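Anyone have tokens for Porin? Sequence:
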Amino acid sequence: MVTIINGIGSSEIVIEHAQTNKVDEAKRWMLGFNYWLDPRSVIKVGYEDTDVADGPDDKRFAVQFSYGF
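Reply: yep, here.
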């Protein structure tokens, strides 16, 4: 499930939730902020928390720049 909340101007808040049980049973939440420089360029900032049932949990903070055409 992905929820995008349009913000002011060219920004948006992104909330994701996912579950998997293929390889390792896990639940993942991600909260992020996207700032669009133009229709093809975005700066993304996000925090991701993955809870793995039979293993160590994973928490990460990421900053990304994406460009496409």
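Residues 2-67 form one domain.
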